[in-house]
Design brief:
With 238 residues, this protein is α/β, with parallel strands linked by helices. The chain has one domain: TIM Barrel. It is built from seven helices and ten strands. A six-stranded mixed beta sheet has the order 7-4-3-2-1-10, sandwiched between helices. The chain has a two-stranded antiparallel sheet with strand order 5-6. The mean pLDDT is 97.
Length: 238
């Protein structure tokens, strides 16, 4: 077994609310400088920059997982992670079909920039990715699993775009193996009856490069692979 520092929730310039400085290469470089061993790119409802991020991270010696921050029909954010690009792109296609046919207003919400691993601009996505899909919180885990992935609610301690804020409770029937909290999570949150015994991890949800934290949480794995990381999460972070 070896110990690996991780953070599994961050955004690139494909997220309209993400900084244009969050290019795949810059993001990967900052993860390496922060001492992170395993990371994930989770843009809003999109996976278009995952390939570039994975290739850039490999150059820096960082293992990157392709992922997405899904917005459910209830406007709760859910982190979805996958073992490879093929699985992530299959999930991305399913999600795209469940988004409303709205165009992004870049002057209001920001651009949605596609880049390669050398930070060359490939274009912009026109579909508005920051809105809610028609996928319910009760569908998310099963839909991600159908593509070989894992889903869990993001920043459940926050007052908006979170499972607890928008649905009011943690329901085991949703099928989530764990939860994500932010660094400012109230110390007594997991005293709630519905959260007792629920495994959880922290994530930075970085929209800017300076929001990427230094290594502070770790997973013990027999080998550093996407599948081993996903299995650790599925086992309740052990």
């Amino acid at each position: 077994m070896a110990r690996y520092a991780f953070d599994l929730h961050m955004h690139s310039c494909l997220s309209p609310c993400g900084s244009e400085d969050n290019t795949p290469n810059s993001l990967a470089g900052m993860c390496a400088l922060a001492g992170l061993d395993i990371v994930a790119l989770t843009d809003h409802n999109a996976v278009g920059n995952c390939g570039a991020f994975l290739r850039a991270a490999e150059r820096y010696g960082v293992l990157a997982l392709p992922g997405m921050e899904l917005t459910t029909a209830e406007e709760a954010h859910v982190v979805c992670l996958f073992p490879g690009l093929e699985e992530a792109r299959a999930f991305g296609a399913l999600v795209k079909d469940r988004l409303p046919p709205l165009k992004n207003k870049r002057d209001i919400y920001g651009p949605q920039i596609l880049m390669d691993e050398d930070d060359n601009v490939l274009g912009e996505e026109d579909l508005f990715y920051a809105g809610a899909t028609t996928i319910s919180a009760y569908e998310a885990a099963g839909l991600a699993a159908s593509c070989g992935g894992l889903a869990y609610p993001a920043h459940i301690d926050r007052p908006s775009f979170s499972l607890l804020a928008n649905l009011g409770l943690w329901d085991p029937d949703m099928g989530f193996a764990l939860a994500e909290i932010s660094k400012n999570c109230p110390a007594d949150l997991f005293r709630r009856p519905d959260l007792q015994g629920v495994p959880h991890i922290t994530a930075c949800d970085a929209h800017y490069l300076d929001q990427i934290p230094d290594a502070h949480q770790y997973m013990d794995l027999p080998r550093r692979t996407p599948q081993a990381a996903l299995d650790w999460l599925r086992r309740g972070c052990r």
